[in-house]
Write a structure and sequence with these properties.
By secondary structure, the protein is an alpha/beta fold. It has two domains: 6-71 and 184-344, 3-Layer(aba) Sandwich (Aminopeptidase), CATH 3.40.630.10; 73-169, Peptidase M42, domain 2 (Elongation Factor Tu (Ef-tu), domain 3, Beta Barrel). Helices cover 25% and strands 27% of the residues. It contains seven helices and 18 strands. The chain has helices at 6-17, 27-40, 153-158, 185-203, 269-281, 298-304, 329-344; strands at 44-46, 51-55, 63-68, 73-79, 85-90, 102-106, 112-119, 142-146, 166-169, 174-176, 179-182, 213-218, 236-240, 243-244, 256-261, 286-290, 310-318, 325-328. The strands form three sheets. Strands 1, 2, 3, 12, 13, 14, 15, 16 and 17 form a nine-stranded mixed beta sheet that branches. A six-stranded antiparallel beta sheet has the order 5-4-9-6-7-8. It is globular, with a radius of gyration of 21 Å.
Length: 345
């Protein structure tokens, strides 16, 4: 098994988590990634819609390795008469996975306000019994309560908050006994894995990939068009994304999953078999898994866009997807080693 710099990967993960990047809110994290690429000596450019593509070197049969920068979150739909915020989702964030979370509201003119996702009414002790049985619904009984002394919609608008402002959730990162708990393991943990490879196996050792490699840090995966454009010479795409655990799944938090199929398509048979062989040869802790009925990656996005390429996906087993997620450092290690061994040949 290849060596894995656990500290560097975790430091990068925490640095990425510290940057709010709800889908569409890409500018700050894009600047961060450009700075990282420049510091490491890799040529990089931005996409017009947002996202960063770095040239990692190598020659022949170009492959895109992608991990996405964007997070699920919320957007202000309207301001309620009492000054609270009615919201809609940006990406797949069920209300039951958001209620009681602390948030930051980013206005269009750059102001940031804190608040909490609350049920309405919000106190169990003074609420009728139906509160306990009614599901949370963004349209009816969930709102953002601001940490500001607002009493009406005019007070809230005076702060500069309006329809269309972006709302980011606190990550609540913590780690215990190797278990990593945080929002947005999907997919900032995988971005950190790719950055670790760029530093520890390319920059620090001077090694070259066995083929031309683009690292594409996409900004719109959570809403389905992250890699709908890729470099024209691309032959293959390899997505790094979480492998959700569940009762019918093989995926485990200590392991790397090689994806056989997502909701839409089987992954490329030959490319998947190449990854299986590398995992076996490296002695990795790995499984094959199928993800359905509600899962896709940016590898699928490129296929759907019409590119004549092979596509595959791998990632660390992760529980509680799109909620307060959990994985294990071993899952990141196995994902890293599989990706690195595959790209180094």
């Amino acid at each position: 098994m290849l060596s894995f710099d656990e500290k560097y990967c975790l430091d990068q993960f925490k640095a990425l988590l510290a940057i709010d990047s709800t889908t569409g809110q890409y500018e700050e994290i894009e600047r961060y990634m450009l700075d990282q690429c420049e510091e490491l000596g890799f040529k990089a450019c931005t996409c017009r819609k947002g996202g960063v593509i770095a040239d990692l070197g190598g020659e022949g049969d170009p492959i895109v390795v992608t991990a996405h920068l964007d997070d699920i979150g919320l957007m202000v739909r309207k301001i309620n008469p009492d000054g609270t915020l009615n919201v809609c989702t940006v990406g797949g964030l069920p209300p039951q996975y958001a209620v009681t979370e602390n948030v930051r509201v980013h206005t269009r003119d750059g102001k940031v306000y804190t608040g909490t996702v609350c049920r309405t009414p919000g106190s169990v002790h003074v609420t009728e019994e139906e509160f306990r049985t009614t599901l949370p619904d963004y349209r009816k009984n969930v709102c953002i309560v601001l940490d500001e002394p607002v009493k009406n919609a005019g007070d809230t608008r005076a702060l500069g908050i309006e329809t269309g402002d972006i709302i980011a959730l606190d990550t609540r990162f913590t780690m215990s006994n190797g278990y990593i708990k945080s929002r947005f393991v999907d997919d900032k943990a995988c971005v950190a894995v790719v950055l670790t490879f760029m530093v520890k196996y390319l920059k620090d050792t001077g090694k070259k990939p066995c083929r031309k490699v683009y690292a594409y840090f996409a900004a719109y995966e959570e809403i389905g068009h992250g890699t709908s454009w890729i470099p024209e010479d691309t032959k293959d795409i390899l997505a790094l994304d979480i492998a959700p655990t569940g009762p019918d799944q093989n995926s485990e938090e200590h392991k790397v999953s090689i994806f056989a199929k997502d909701t839409s398509y089987p992954f490329h048979w030959a490319m998947t078999n190449e990854l299986r062989k590398v995992a076996k040869d490296q002695g990795l802790n790995w499984v094959m898994d199928v993800f359905t009925p509600h899962y896709g990656t940016d590898a699928e996005t490129s296929i759907r866009a019409g590119y004549d390429i092979r596509h595959a996906a791998i990632g660390p087993g992760t529980s509680n997807s799109h909620g307060y997620e959990r994985t294990h450092i071993d899952g990141l290690r196995n994902t890293y080693c599989l990706m690195a061994a595959y790209l180094l040949g």
